[in-house]
Amino acid sequence: VFTDPFLPCGQILAEHLSLPSVFFLRRIPCGLELEATQCPNPPSYVPALATGNTDRMTFLQRMKNLIFDLPRFFICDFVYQPYATLASEFLQRGVTVSQLLSQASIWLMKLDFVLEYPRPLMPNMIIIGGVNCAHK
């Protein structure tokens, strides 16, 4: 199943039908793709989007980065709770959205390290930058 994990309905269906899934995305706002793939994302190394920090941070900048990173856990739980409930009812077993997304076979990531900071990626994450670029 070729799907976008931002709304995990396609992954719920793929899990129900026991089909492999391929995800195509740029980024999930709360970093769920990094949690689902068990990709390292330490806030002391990877700068948060709204902080303006670089990959060379002082101690205070690292603390600011950590403070900006904390609310995403609560926001993510609040936003994806209806999907976790739906998946648990439909699949008839307890499941979280992170567990659903961790079943993906391949992640096609629209990342470009010219615009973002390099970070470790897992072997099933394939970078396909420049997808939305057009010749002018």
Automatic annotation (TrEMBL):
Listed transmembrane segments: none
Keyword Chloroplast: no
Name of the featured protein: UDP-glucuronosyltransferase 1-1
InterPro entries (UniProt xref): UDP-glycosyltransferase, UDP_glucos_trans
Subcellular location: Membrane
UniProt membrane topology term: Single-pass membrane protein
Family: Belongs to the UDP-glycosyltransferase family.
GO cellular component, as recorded: membrane
Domain of life: Eukaryota
One Pfam family in the UniProt entry: UDPGT
Keywords: Glycosyltransferase, Membrane, Transferase, Transmembrane, Transmembrane helix
Single Gene Ontology MF annotation: UDP-glycosyltransferase activity
